[in-house]
Amino acid sequence: MTHSFILASSSPRRLALLADIGIVPDKIIAADINETPRKGEVPRKLASRLALEKLQAVSAKQPGATILAADTVVGVGRRILPKAENDADVRHCLRLLSGRRHHVFTGVAIQMPNGKILQRLCDSTVIFRQLSAQDIETYIAGGEGIGKAGGYAIQGQAGALIRYISGSYSNIVGLPLFEVSQLLRSHGEGG
Fold first, then answer.
1. How crowded is residue 27: how many other Cβ atoms within 10 Å of its Cβ?
2. Which of 23, 142, 155, 174 has minimal CB crowding within 10 Å?
3. Confidence band (pLDDT; 50, 70, 90) for 35?
4. φ, ψ for residue 190 (rounded to 5)?
5. Which of 60, 70, 74 is nearest to 25 (CA)?
């Protein structure tokens, strides 16, 4: 990077994913925004809107930097699944996802030092196998679904419950690395 690089996210997964492609932010600034979906908002639109709002919340205080913001939303049809806050949320999400196809959308917004804003939306498809009540309770007992969009983390125990993915694996984890690296590279940043 030729300028200061800021990650507008406190997600340890996003930080680790960036490190996987050799990018270490100079600063991490979590964007404090209202993430409540708007009436009638669909998952893909929510992911894009929240990424842009996170970028705008941080960029106002960081002129001249390269800033990366992202937001991941899990959707079943037009339904937006929550970021699980407790075991009941994880249970609800996994029951809904059991045996069904769903989409993981990550909106990416990058502000370049000159103020130009770049945006992308990545869409990955995931299908869980049919889950028994015991599968769900065993997963909940591991605790890794808390704080995750859709109530699961593909990079953990949920990997054994998923029978199919199409698209970017890193997107499902929380940041589509190919898209991020291509955006940065196309504008003279990144490797």
1. 13
2. 142
3. very high
4. 75, 175
5. 70
Class of CATH domain 5-186: alpha beta
Q: What SS3 state is found at 89?
A: helix
- CA angle, 77 then 81 then 82, to 5°: 165
Burial class (CB in 10 A: 0-12, 13-18, 19+), 55: buried
CA of 96: how far to CAs of 61, 90, 92, 140, in Å? 40, 10, 6, 15
Please give the Cα distance from 103 to 29 (Å, whole number): 27
pTM for this predicted structure: 0.93
Q: Which of the residues 71, 87, 89, 123 is marked catalytic?
A: 71
- Read off φ and ψ for residue 71, nearest 5 degrees: -145, 135
Check residue 159 and report its DSSP letter. Answer: G
20 is catalytic: no
Contact 190, 181 (CB under 8 A): yes
How far from each other are the two terminal CA atoms of the chain, in whole angstroms?
Answer: 8
* Residue positions counted in the chain: 191
